[in-house]
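Q: 5-hydroxytryptamine receptor 5B, please. Structure only.
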Amino acid sequence: MEAANLSVATAGVALALGPETCSSSPRPSGILSSTPGGAVLQGREPSFSVFTVLVVTLLVLLIAATFLWNLLVLVTILRVRAFHRVPHNLVASTAVSDVLVAALVMPLSLVSELSAGRRWLLGRTLCHVWISFDVLCCTASIWNVAAIALDRYWTITRHLQYTLRTRRRASALMIALTWGLSALIALAPLLFGWGEVYDARLQRCQVSQEPSYAVFSTCGAFYLPLGVVLFVYWKIYKAAKFRFGRRRRAVLPLQATAQVKEAPDEAEMVFTAHCRATMAFQASGDSWREQKEKRAAMMVGILIGVFVLCWIPFFLTELISPLCACSLPPIWKSIFLWLGYSNSFFNPLIYTAFNKNYNNAFKSLFNKQR
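A: Structure for 5-hydroxytryptamine receptor 5B:
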């Protein structure tokens, strides 16, 4: 009887205090919350570690630096009249695509990364807009790199036939094809129903995982321009090596012949001096052109190397994952994606570092602002 009375009393105290006070169990993995009906729910506190804050800060700085640096290149090209020609229009096209990547694509990607479970909480319409601009701008940036490589190749190997008029037409055609092909790849899922980019049930927004579209988009956006730039740089290397070797073989015997005898007569001395001055002028001109072509070849090589390192991990996973119905852990997908985005930051650094005209234009632009 006493035990029964004790149990009844304990139950009464529990009802009076409510369910929260009766729960004294430890809660290491979450917090408890109660609904108006008295149900107890378990949730997690939003936790941001120091590492997470550091990574987010670095990504925000990357976005800002990519936007500002490419915007500076665009402003310089627009304000300096000497840049209103080839190949600066190709550089401007690249800067436009990279500015759009930094302004429209990377911020929304960061928002998606910060959401719980990388869910897309901004609706179907904004998902379609984001994915379309993502594919459009990144593809255009990649093809612009290929266009710059082609322009350098024709300048080095066909500098007599590749006149300024021809160069203008070729660059305008390459820019039009770059943006046209990029728009086709980006809008194909919307225009032709080629897979779905938004999953309302899972709240997921990603590029269409239809296997046929994965092959089409990755080949058109990366593997085809990759083949172009690798072939072009191989041809640039061969042409530059052949021309530089031929120049050395042509100049060195002339210099040795000119120094064999001393002219006894004044007329011969004048003739010898004139020949030596002519050869010196020709050698200096060839040396200047040789240095310019070497610098252009080095710029294209570094541009291609950075482009390959930044994008090849992402496009390998984009091609393999839909075909084998397998997927990487989300953290690796994010790393590969942002590594690809970083190519838009490196592009203006590379093609301005090898062109002193840009550095001088930057200085004059800042001096005018002061």
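A: Brief note, in case it's useful. The chain is about 75% helix and 5% strand.
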